[in-house]
Amino acid sequence: MSSASPEADVARKVSATEVERVPSHGQWDGAAIRSTSLEPQSKWESIKMYPKAIACFLSIPQWRQDYGYLYQGQYVVSANWQLAFTAASMIGLVVGGALTGVISQRFGQKICILGGHLITIGGVFLQWFSIGNMGMFFAGKLLTGIPLGIFVTSAPVYCSEVAPQPLRGAMVAAVNFSLVVGQLLGYGVMRETQTMEGPNAYRILFAVQWGFAAVGLAFLYFIPESPTRLIARGKIDAGRRSLSILYDASATHLEEMVERIQLNLASLEEGSAGSLKECFNKANRMRTAVAVSVFFIQACSGISWVLGYMGYFMQLGGLGGGQVFDITVGICGAMAVGNMVSWPLVDRMGRRGLILAGLLFCTVSMLLIAVLGCFPEKGRPVLLAQVAFMAVWGFMYQGSIGSVGYTLITEVPTSSLRNLTQSLGTIVNGLSNCIWSFSMPYMVNPDQANMKGKVAFIFFGILVVCDVFVFFYYPETKGRSFEEIDELYAMGVPPRKFSKTVLEPAVLRGKGEDA
């Protein structure tokens, strides 16, 4: 999400590419980079003076002019409104994820996805016509945050349930690719529009979301509901029709697939669709913790800094706007490639192996970035080395926890709790990103902690703890059916030993017979 980042709209994804350079009486890393002619007087004024650290669309001068006010010679946007806009997206993400977990259990995932597209259209409508109206723009941000929570919750689960087992890992891992592509499209649109005169300099960024919604609605009619969800709700015939659309199979084979799904659901109490309380009972609490930890690790591994602040970081280091834009696009390109590399590797190295290896590379990258930050006097060479390790981090992040994490979070929960667990993960993702969104400006702004590259020490420490947790508690689910994963957990097999444990077919047959 991301990362998933909590911001669904394209404008929120684009890193800052503009910092006004004016004569100054203060220097940071040899660059006279300032937002006003005076030193900030408070934390709130600091946020006002460094709007690029809050939301990327604030880097568009026309947007600041339409929504802001003159402050010592330039247009700025109230810090309270900036924080409100960030909060709106976070709240929307959490609400969307929570609602999807409940609604999809009862009505299926298609209705949730349909609702997400319709809400997107409404939210963008409010943003488009909100010129200068802060309340309307806030409402638009809130509405466009809800669909992100819906899509992040429903899409991975849907893919895991309709994909053939040999393709399940790659197909679910590819879900995050759409977020990366969205970021790249956002950069491209921003490059072409930010110098326009008038509201279209930023409104076109909003309108791009209408295009995504239109494409999604056009394809939604042809997408069948998840057979697993239908059969779980007792709609056997509908589930069979859905399977016939998804698979070119004979009637006999279709019946076998229906029986397998029923067997997978047979361990549940008849008529039960799972409950939130069950996610935390003795049998499921560790599975819930592992699944939810995926989104926590994504949010706390450094994505909020690398993706949201790398442009600002490079500008404070003295790089020009054009260089910053090109480097930012290059790093996002590396992330996209990393995501694609994970597709074949997820079933060769496995989920656990790929996530652990990627996180170890991310950990080392953050350490090197932080250590290099201790030598600011070296100037540009150190900055470029840090940027290079950011690219390594981005590639490895998207090649592991950023993409494969989506696969694992859909495979670890039991079938009856998959939607609810994904919903809990989305909520944790939103809350975690909320913390970083509000704390990051105070870490990086020159008048506050001014940590520069040393902020990576924080993420390094967090990643070390995450590496240990992944090693002991992340299972290898490669090549396992959902029934086998359930049985391994029921047998109490340590997660790190899943790959070495052989299940006899009789064990699973016996489970079905007992049910």
If you had to describe this structure to a student in words, what would you say it looks like?
The radius of gyration is 24 Å and the shape is globular. The longest helix is centred in the middle third of the chain and has 32 residues. It has 515 residues and is mainly α. The protein is built from 21 helices and two strands. A two-stranded antiparallel sheet has the order 1-2. β1 and β2 form a beta hairpin. It has one domain: Growth Hormone, Chain: A.
Which architecture would the CATH scheme give at its second level? Up-down Bundle
Largest sheet: 2 strands, antiparallel
Distance between the termini: 37 Å
Helix/strand class: mainly alpha
Please state how the strands of the largest beta sheet are arranged side by side: 1-2
Fill in the CATH topology: Growth Hormone, Chain: A
Radius of gyration: 24 Å
Oligomer: single chain
User: What is the average of the pLDDT values?
Assistant: 80
Supply the key terms.
mainly alpha, disordered C terminus
Concise overview:
With 515 residues, the protein is an all-alpha fold. Helices cover 67% and strands 1% of the residues. The N terminus and C terminus are likely disordered.
Task: Compile the SSE list and pairings.
Elements: H1 10-13, H2 43-49, H3 61-67, E1 69-71, E2 74-76, H4 79-107, H5 109-128, H6 134-162, H7 165-173, H8 175-193, H9 200-220, H10 227-232, H11 236-246, H12 251-265, H13 285-316, H14 321-345, H15 351-372, H16 380-398, H17 404-411, H18 418-444, H19 456-473, H20 482-490, H21 505-514
Helix pairs in contact: 4-5, 4-6, 4-18, 5-6, 5-9, 6-7, 6-18, 7-14, 7-17, 8-9, 8-14, 11-12, 13-14, 13-16, 13-17, 13-18, 13-19, 14-16, 15-16, 15-17, 15-19
